[in-house]
Amino acid sequence: MISTIILFILFIVVVSTTLWLFLVSFSLWQSSNQKTFYVSTPKHIAQKMLETLDAQKGRNLIDLGAGDGSILRLSAQKHETTSVGYEITMWPYLSSILKNYLFKKNNPQLKNLVQMHYSPALDADVSEADYIFLYTSPEFNQKLAYKLKRELPTYSRIVSLTFPLPDWTAEEEITIGDYTYWLYLKAHNESERSL
C-alpha cells in the first residue's frame, strides 16, 4: 500500500515537473521567436505611473504587453478602473490566469474590472481606452506609436516605461531611481495622426 502511494506521488511529481519544463521551454522559445520578453514593473513604479495617468474610477485602462496582469490588478484595486490586458507570451499569461482568479476570489466587488486576453497587442481594440500602459521594447513601441495615433480617442493618456514612443511629443518625462517613463496626451499629438 505504501509503495503504491509513493509511486503515485512520484508519478505526480514527474508529470508536474515535465509540464512545468515544457511550459517554460515553450515560453522561452516563443519569446525568442517573437522578440518579446517579460519583465515585471516594480510595484512602486507602477503606482507612480498610475498616479501620473490620473487613473479614475470607472475609466478604461489597457495594458499592451500585460505580462502577469499585475498592473491590471493594481489599477482595479487602487483606482477601480476597468483594466484589460493583452499578452502573447505563454508563461506570464498563464500566471495571470491564476493570479487574476485569486484576485477576483479575494476581491469579489472588483471581479468584473480585470480581463486578460491571450492576444497580440497590435490586435487590441483601444478605441475606448482612457489610459494606456506600456512597458515594451523600442521596436514594438515603433509599431504601437502608429496604431495609437490612429485608433485612440483624443482624451487618452499614455505612460511608457523605459522606452519613449517614437514620433510622439511627451508631456512629461519622469525619473524615479533607475526608472524613466514618459506621459503622453493623445490630444497634444493629434496633428501627427496621419503618419
TrEMBL record:
Gene Ontology biological process: methylation
Keywords: Membrane, Methyltransferase, S-adenosyl-L-methionine, Transferase, Transmembrane, Transmembrane helix
Transmembrane region(s): 6-29
SUPFAM superfamilies attached to this UniProt entry: S-adenosyl-L-methionine-dependent methyltransferases
Endpoints of the signal sequence: none
GO MF term (any one): protein-lysine N-methyltransferase activity
InterPro entries: FAM173A/B (IPR026170), SAM-dependent_MTases_sf (IPR029063)
Protein name: SAM-dependent methyltransferase
Organism: candidate division WWE3 bacterium
